[in-house]
C-alpha cells in the first residue's frame, strides 16, 4: 500500500471540488401537494384555476348596486328592498350579477317586512373579492428551485395543483469504520466506544432535505470497506465514509476511494477536521470524514451540507452571523484555520461570547455551543474584549434569554440550567470576577478563601469591586477534599501524603478557587507546586478531576464531595467552604436574575441539592449588599 500524505489545502479549494463534481442534481418526482412542505420545486408551478373562481362576498352583509346607494347619508337614510335592491350574503357567497358591492351587516339597520336602511353609500366592488383577485389562472405560483413553506402549500392548493413536481431527496450513504465501535451499550468495555456519528449524520442529512442510509459498521479491513463503498455507490447519490481518513496503519479510506474512483483533495488546513477527503466515484461525490464527533460535525457543515444543498438547487450560505465581544483570549496556531465553539449571551445590552472546550472529541461542547467563531489560518487568535463574528447555531431570540454565568464550576450550575436557560463557562472564581468586572456575565460563582482572615468571598469582592454596588447571593455550603479510587488503595489522607508519596495529582485550572485552596494547603505544609507530580496538568471541572481519578489517570484530586459521590469515589474531607453567587446590584431588576433567585430558594432546587449529598443550604438565597 502506498504512503498516504495529508495536504494543507485551504478551505476555499472546496469551490474547485464543487466545480469538479459538475451537475449533481438527482432528478424529480411528483408528490401530493399535501406532502410537499420542505421539498424543493423541480419546475415552475403555474396556477390551473383562478382564486376565487367567481366574484365573492368578502364580508357578511347585503349585496347592492353601488350606483343605487349614492344618495344615502346619515341625515337622509336610504331604504332598500330585499330581492329588488339588495340580497343577503355571507362571506364567500357568489355575488348576484345585478350587484357590485357588499355592505357589512353591522352597517345595516333592519326595518322589517324585507326592508333595510343604510346611512352611507357603497363604492363599486366594496368588500367583494373579484374573480382571480388572489390567483389568476396561468400565473406563476412558485418558481423552480424554491423550498416549499407551509404558506406555499396553501397557495399551490388554491391554484388547483393537488400534485407537484419536486426534486428527489438525495440519498446519502453513511459508512462508519472502526473495530472499536459498538451500537449496544451492553457491549461497551475497555477499547470499545459507542458509535454515534452515523446517527448524528442522518439527523443532519434529514435537516438538509436528504435521506440518510446507514450501513453496518465496517471493521478496519480494506476489503470490507471496499465492499461497503461499492454497495453504497450503487444505492446512494452521495457517500460519507466516517473515520479511517487519516494516515494511520488501519486508515484505508483514501486508498479505497482511489480504487473506486478519484481522490480530488486529501487534507485541509482546518482544526478540527484536517484529514478530510473529497473524492468522486461512479460519478458520485464521496467524502471522507474524520472520526472524532466535533470534527465529524464541522466537516459535515463545511463540505457535506453544501453538496446536499447543491443537489437540491439550494445555497449553503444561510447561516446567520452576529458580532459579539469575546470574554477571554483565544490563541490559535498559524498552521490551521480553526472553528471555535462559543457560548453566547446578552449582558448590559451587548452580546458576549465565551469559548468552550476545543478538543475534537468533546461532543458536549457542540451541545452547549450557541455558535462557531472562525479563526483564519494566518491569525494567532483574538484577545479578550475583541469584537468577533460568530456564526449562530441557535436562534438569537433564544440566546438573548440566556443567563450568563462565568466563574467557578459546581454541579448546582447544571441543576440551574435544567430550569433556566444558561450560558456558562467554567473559568474559576477569579476568571468569574474578571468577567464581571468587564461586564461580560450576569453572575460569577465564587468560592475564594482569604488566607489572612479565613473569610470566604467578601474580602475579594471588596478588593476587586471597591466602591461599586455589588450583591453576594449566598449559595451552598460544601466540602472540599481528596477524591480517591474506591477503597483508597494507596491510603492517601492528606496533602502531605500526596507530596511525600509522589502520587499523581489531578489539579484544577489557574484561577479556580479549588486551585487557590490547594496552593494554600501546600504552603501551610511547607511544600511547593514543583513538589507535586501532575501539578501542571489542569482540569476545568470537579467532575473532570474525579473522572481522572476514576479512570486511573491520577491517584488523587482535590474537589467537592458531591462530585465524588456522583462518580462513586472515596472522599477524604479537608475543608468546609462557601460557594456563592456574585452580581451587580443593578442586575436585580433583570428578569433572568429574578427567575434565578426564585428558583434557588424553591423546594425543587433544595431537594435536588440534598440528593447529591455533601451540600448544606442554611443561608441559600440570602442577599448581601456590598458597597
How many distinct helices? Answer: 17
- What does the average pLDDT come to? 92
Structural class: alpha/beta
Termini Cα gap: 72 Å
Please describe the biggest sheet, giving its number of strands, its sense, and whether it closes into a barrel.
7 strands, mixed
State the low-pLDDT regions, or none: none
- Strand content bin: 25-35%
Radius of gyration: 34 Å
The 3D shape can be described as flat
Query: Percent of residues in helical segments?
Result: 25-40%
What does this structure look like?
The chain has 627 residues and is α/β, with parallel strands linked by helices. Helix content is 26%, strand content 28%. The chain contains 17 helices and 37 strands. The strands form eleven sheets. Strands 31, 32, 33, 34, 35, 36 and 37 form a seven-stranded mixed β-sheet that branches. Strands 16-13-17-21-20-18 form a six-stranded mixed β-sheet, sandwiched between helices. A five-stranded mixed beta barrel has the order 22-25-24-26-28. A hairpin with a 2-residue loop joins strand 8 and strand 9. The radius of gyration is 34 Å and the shape is flat. The termini are far apart. The model has no long low-confidence stretch (mean pLDDT 92).
Walk me through the topology.
Elements: H1 14-21, E1 28-32, E2 45-46, E3 56-57, E4 61-64, E5 78-81, E6 87-89, E7 101-104, E8 109-112, E9 115-118, E10 128-129, E11 140-142, H2 150-158, E12 163-167, E13 171-176, E14 181-182, E15 193-194, H3 197-208, E16 211-214, H4 222-235, E17 238-242, H5 253-260, E18 262-266, E19 270-271, E20 277-281, E21 284-289, H6 293-311, E22 321-326, E23 330-331, E24 337-347, E25 350-355, H7 363-368, E26 371-375, E27 381-382, E28 387-392, H8 396-399, E29 403-407, H9 411-419, E30 422-426, H10 428-437, E31 444-446, H11 458-464, E32 470-484, H12 495-501, E33 505-508, H13 513-524, E34 538-539, H14 542-550, E35 556-560, H15 561-567, E36 570-584, H16 591-600, H17 603-612, E37 623-626
Amino acid at each position: 500500500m502506498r504512503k498516504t500524505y495529508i495536504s494543507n489545502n485551504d478551505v476555499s479549494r472546496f469551490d474547485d471540488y464543487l466545480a469538479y463534481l459538475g451537475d449533481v442534481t438527482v432528478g424529480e418526482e411528483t408528490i401530493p401537494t399535501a406532502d410537499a412542505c420542505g421539498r424543493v420545486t423541480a419546475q415552475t408551478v403555474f396556477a390551473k384555476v383562478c382564486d376565487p373562481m367567481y366574484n365573492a362576498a368578502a364580508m357578511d352583509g347585503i349585496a347592492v348596486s353601488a350606483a343605487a346607494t349614492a344618495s344615502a347619508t346619515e341625515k337622509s337614510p336610504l331604504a332598500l328592498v330585499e330581492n329588488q335592491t339588495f340580497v343577503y350574503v355571507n362571506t364567500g357567497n357568489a355575488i348576484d350579477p345585478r350587484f357590485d358591492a357588499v355592505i357589512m351587516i353591522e352597517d345595516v339597520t333592519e326595518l322589517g317586512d324585507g326592508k333595510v336602511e343604510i346611512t352611507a353609500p357603497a363604492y363599486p366592488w366594496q368588500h367583494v373579492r373579484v374573480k382571480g383577485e388572489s390567483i389568476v389562472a396561468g400565473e406563476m405560483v412558485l418558481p423552480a428551485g424554491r423550498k416549499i413553506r407551509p404558506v406555499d402549500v396553501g397557495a399551490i392548493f388554491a391554484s388547483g395543483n393537488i400534485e407537484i413536481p419536486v426534486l428527489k431527496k438525495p440519498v446519502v450513504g453513511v459508512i462508519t469504520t472502526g473495530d472499536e465501535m459498538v451500537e449496544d451499550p451492553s457491549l461497551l468495555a475497555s477499547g470499545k466506544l459507542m458509535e454515534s456519528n452515523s446517527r448524528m449524520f442522518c439527523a443532519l442529512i434529514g435537516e438538509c432535505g436528504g435521506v440518510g442510509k446507514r450501513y453496518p459498521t465496517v471493521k478496519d479491513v480494506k476489503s470490507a470497506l471496499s465492499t461497503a463503498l461499492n454497495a453504497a455507490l450503487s444505492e446512494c447519490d452521495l457517500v460519507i465514509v466516517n473515520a479511517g481518513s487519516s494516515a494511520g496503519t488501519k486508515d484505508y479510506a483514501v486508498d479505497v476511494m482511489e480504487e473506486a474512483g478519484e481522490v480530488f483533495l486529501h487534507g485541509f488546513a482546518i482544526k478540527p477536521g484536517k484529514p478530510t477527503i473529497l473524492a468522486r466515484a461512479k460519478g458520485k461525490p464521496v467524502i471522507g470524514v474524520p472520526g472524532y464527533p466535533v470534527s465529524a460535525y464541522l466537516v459535515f457543515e463545511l463540505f457535506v451540507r453544501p453538496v446536499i444543498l447543491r443537489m437540491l438547487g439550494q445555497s449553503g450560505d444561510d447561516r446567520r452571523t452576529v458580532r459579539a465581544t469575546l470574554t477571554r483570549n483565544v490563541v490559535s496556531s498559524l498552521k490551521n484555520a480553526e472553528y471555535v465553539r462559543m457560548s453566547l449571551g446578552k449582558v448590559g445590552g451587548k452580546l458576549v461570547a465565551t469559548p468552550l472546550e476545543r478538543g475534537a472529541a468533546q461532543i458536549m461542547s457542540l451541545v452547549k455551543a450557541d455558535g462557531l467563531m472562525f479563526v483564519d489560518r494566518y491569525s494567532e487568535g483574538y484577545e479578550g474584549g475583541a469584537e468577533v463574528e460568530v456564526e449562530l447555531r441557535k436562534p438569537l431570540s433564544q440566546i438573548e434569554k440566556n443567563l450568563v454565568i462565568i466563574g467557578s464550576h459546581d454541579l448546582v450550575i447544571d441543576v440551574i440550567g435544567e430550569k433556566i436557560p444558561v450560558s456558562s463557562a467554567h473559568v474559576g472564581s477569579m476568571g468569574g470576577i474578571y468577567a464581571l468586572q468587564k461586564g461580560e456575565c450576569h453572575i460569577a460563582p465564587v468560592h475564594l478563601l482569604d488566607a489572612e482572615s479565613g473569610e470566604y468571598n467578601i474580602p475579594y469582592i471588596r478588593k476587586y469591586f471597591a466602591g461599586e454596588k455589588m450583591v453576594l447571593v449566598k449559595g451552598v455550603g460544601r466540602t472540599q477534599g481528596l477524591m480517591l479510587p474506591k477503597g483508597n488503595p494507596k491510603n492517601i489522607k492528606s496533602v502531605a501524603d500526596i507530596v511525600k508519596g509522589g502520587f499523581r495529582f489531578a489539579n484544577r485550572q489557574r484561577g479556580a478557587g479549588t486551585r487557590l485552596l490547594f496552593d494554600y494547603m501546600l504552603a501551610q505544609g511547607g511544600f511547593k507546586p514543583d513538589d507535586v507530580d501532575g501539578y501542571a496538568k489542569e482540569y476545568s471541572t470537579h467532575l473532570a478531576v474525579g473522572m481522572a481519578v476514576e479512570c486511573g489517570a491520577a491517584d488523587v484530586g482535590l474537589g467537592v464531595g458531591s462530585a465524588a459521590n456522583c462518580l462513586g469515589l472515596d472522599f477524604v474531607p479537608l475543608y468546609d467552604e462557601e460557594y456563592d453567587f456574585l452580581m451587580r446590584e443593578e442586575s436585580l431588576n433583570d428578569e433572568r436574575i429574578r427567575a434565578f433567585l426564585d428558583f434557588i430558594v424553591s423546594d425543587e432546587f433544595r431537594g435536588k441539592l440534598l440528593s447529591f449529598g455533601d451540600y448544606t443550604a442554611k443561608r441559600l438565597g440570602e442577599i448581601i449588599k456590598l458597597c
